Amino acid sequence: MLLNLNHPPLRFPVRMKYYLIVGEASGDLHASHLMRALRKRDPQAQFRFFGGDLMAAVGGTRVRHYKELAYMGFIPVLLHLPTIFRNMAFCKRDIKEWEPDVVILVDYPGFNLNIAKYVSTHTDIPVYYYIAPKIWAWKEWRIRSIKRYVSELFSILPFEIDFFERKHHFPIHYVGNPTADEVRQFRADYAEKRDDFIDRQGLKTDQPIIALLAGSRRQEIKDNLPAMIEAAEQFAGYQLVLAGAPSIEDEYYEQFIAHTSVQLVRNDTYALLSHATAALVTSGTATLETALFHVPQVVCYETPIKHIVRFAFRHIIHVQFISLVNLIAGREVVRELLADEFSVENIRTELEKILPEGTKREQQLADYNELQAILGEEEAPENAARLMCNMLRAE
């Protein structure tokens, strides 16, 4: 459902209790902006949440940190099943005891759809899903749970309208893209010169930057970062700068970057992208962020059992691409090196093409402009907060 939201926000005393659940760093970021937008409309809002430091900075009560939930992959999930089940059980009890006016779920469908089922079947509390789960990629059968247990679905990706509304006849609210909002706001406010950034981070003044964004989870970093470093180090005259993920300690990175030329930058990814010449990026929100900063990139995603994964993409998984950039554009804008195509040599070859004088650099930059046009200029947190407050007032 595309909305015409270009009118001044209405303000009214809502005084609601909001229970939010996120499972990773990106969810913490997006939820914190939503919380701020809700508080603008509902100054006496009460928040209780499974979340991170950014949400805690807005205010309210954090009952669990997302780091206690963020397990990825079959083996890590299996090993931590007792912890996951304990957290689920606690979350359900906590919601029922606190009696919020609404439960707001942010992505993280494995955990959140279980909570949605409980809330929907054991209480009268509405369930709002902010940042729809990506079931269009795989596990499409989860649409049944969404239809049964989710009251309102808020989308941040334009192409999801076709999937949810036209294919599955489930209405959604496209509110704009929060990553585009965040990048747009940062670029408007950021005035630091390159030399000042270089000096502040202790980098080399005479070498352009190749940024390394290797994911937010340990397994992603372990699988991708060594090959990214090996490929990028083959380009003399460039300095390699690694963007540290909020949930990963310096000590974990040290095992991969010790005895290399790589320098680690903490809590400064947007500033890094503002001054980078090119980037190697593990699939995820970072691919979209990199594109919105107009940094040419190669998407790198190592997987186990490579040929089986390639088979799955051809016959089981329902999308052609893994990066948000290509999914939103509906075609290949950035090169994706996945599964059997992931190798040091392929990374090196594709990186060369997007460096200055490379054959693909200018076309990729031009395609980024089209991407921004598709996403639009809507402010996702503000739009979502307005809709949520209107709906809750109407309850």
Briefly note the structural class of the backbone. alpha/beta
Question: What fraction, in percent, of the residue positions are helical?
Answer: 40-55%
Q: How can the largest sheet be summarized? A: 7 strands, parallel
Q: How confident is the prediction overall: mean pLDDT?
A: 89
Rg from Cα: 21 Å
The shape, in one word, is globular
Q: Segments where pLDDT lies below 50 for 5+ residues?
A: 2-10
Number of helices: 18
Strand arrangement within the widest β-sheet reads 3-2-1-4-5-6-7
Q: What oligomeric assembly is this protein in?
A: single chain
Give the N-to-C terminal Cα separation: 21 Å
What's this entry about, in short?
This protein is an alpha/beta fold and 395 residues long. The chain is built from 18 helices and 13 strands. Helix 4 runs parallel beside helix 5 (109-122), helix 5 packs parallel to helix 6 and helix 10 (218-232) packs parallel to helix 11.
